[in-house]
Amino acid sequence: MTETPGHTMVAKKKDCMFNTINECEVEDITLEFFYKPHTITLLILSIAAVLVICFIRDDNSIDDNIWAGIWCVIFFLLIVSLLAFPNGPFVRPHPAVWRMVFGLSVLYSLTLLFLLFQKYETIKGMILWLDPNLKDFRIDMDKEYGVNCSDINVEKFWAHLDVFAGAHFFGWVCKAILVRHYGILWSMSIMWEITEVTFSHLLPNFKECWWDAWVLDVLLCNGIGIWVGMRICKMLEMRNYNWPGIKEIDSTGGKIKRAALQFTPASWTPVRWLDPSSSYMRIFAVCQMVIMWQVSELNTFFLKHLFEMPPSHPIVGFRLLFLSIVVAPSTRQYYTYVTDPNCKRLGTQCWVYTVIMITELLLCIKNGKELFQQTEIINISLWFVIMLFFSVISVLGFWQADWLTGKKLDSETVQTATIDDNNCEDQHIATKSKSD
Length: 436
Hints:
The structure is a single chain. By secondary structure, the chain is mostly helical. 69% of the residues lie in helices and 0% in strands. It is built from 15 helices and no strands. The N and C termini lie far apart (54 Å).
């Protein structure tokens, strides 16, 4: 059976939207040079760069030699990522960017797996080699958190609005853009505060005053961040996506504007995690995502606590920034896997991110034996039950609300169609009478 060109294009677009979540192709290419492999050119330039740097650099310092080897490995991994790894679900600003992100996520997951088989002292030694200044840093276990909660004043309230509050707000804006569902986002926000209370006996910085947790965090940082993120989603959803090629634009300003818009989404598809016809498996999958998000957040605090790094340390910041980028295609692939019945496999980026999350959790458990000996089993058991119960109840509530909304929309559609039919019939009768 032969396929017409139009049928082939429709099928290819459908595969890009639903099935081929690992290799979304770029349509309407105008600058073909930037979308061709150039494999021979890359091979010659990369080998030449390694040869030049290898033979002209001073190799007397062991530390410099190790760093040079690490950067060379990362460089060649990025080259291999450009040539061999899949694009993923996104094509903006360029598929090569997401191939390199996937390559770095593979490298990070393999590094975590390697560290999982090392002793705590070995890992700590590696961290001190990366930053010797951490040798004198200790987690201040004697510092008091959440004290004098009844003493509320403007100065104390304002002092908590620091750079971390801004990062908190920006993080929830990004989460809203990724998840795009008010109910799920508010569930994650409230459940995280419950998580902090549960693990506060292990992580002292989780001890917060009630106004800090529920006013500053939930209502202000989380709430406003969710609202801003959802407004951005609404604007992107209403936007008219018409992408002329740079060669088709005559003015210089238009070309610059088009180049800047390359860093915005190529299209925007509204998401619907809980369709009215959803099965129990989709409800389970959404609950699973909510709980996994809590675990991923917990990993951040346990890692910096166990290996004694301040929140402002570059290692902590780079990890958060990198995982924030990796989670974007991972969430999209997970959504496609959950909602599209034609999608039979989990996307590779989502798969690697799951490995990262689980390995970080195992790394914390393995190297936190002394800390977890202080665990109050009743608290952790209660937390797990609450997380499971709250996620199921909330997701079922959102599913019911979506079901009622969908039913109402269907009723309005039928009513509108009936009115349109009656109007058409009245017009037909009036026309016939006039002709008679």
